[in-house]
Amino acid sequence: MNEQHRLAYHTIKEVSYQHYGAITKRLAILGVSRQAYNKSFKCVETQWGKP
Question: What is the b/e burial string over 15-31, where b = at least 16 CB atoms within 10 angstroms of the residue's CB?
C-alpha cells in the first residue's frame, strides 16, 4: 500500500469519528471497499518492504 492511500484512510477514520455511517459514505464516494479499508489498518510493513 502506498503512502497516499494510508494517509487517506487515516484521514477518513479521524474525520468520521463518532458519526454513524460516515465511514461507509466516504468509502463509497472514493470507490474503496470496506474490506480494503479495514485491511489497511492490520497491515504491518517489514524492513524488506511490502508485506
Answer: ebeeeeeebeebbeeee
Residue 7 corresponds to which cell in the numbers above?
A: 494517509
Alpha carbons within 13 angstroms on the beta-carbon side of residue 39 total 8
Beta bridge partners of 47: none
pTM of the model: 0.56
End-to-end CA distance of the chain: 9
Kindly give the confidence (pLDDT) of every residue in the chain, 51 residues in length, as a single tens digit, with 9 standing for 90 and above: 577 777 777 787 877 777 888 888 888 888 888 888 788 777 777 677 655
Alpha carbon distance 50, 43 (integer Å): 9
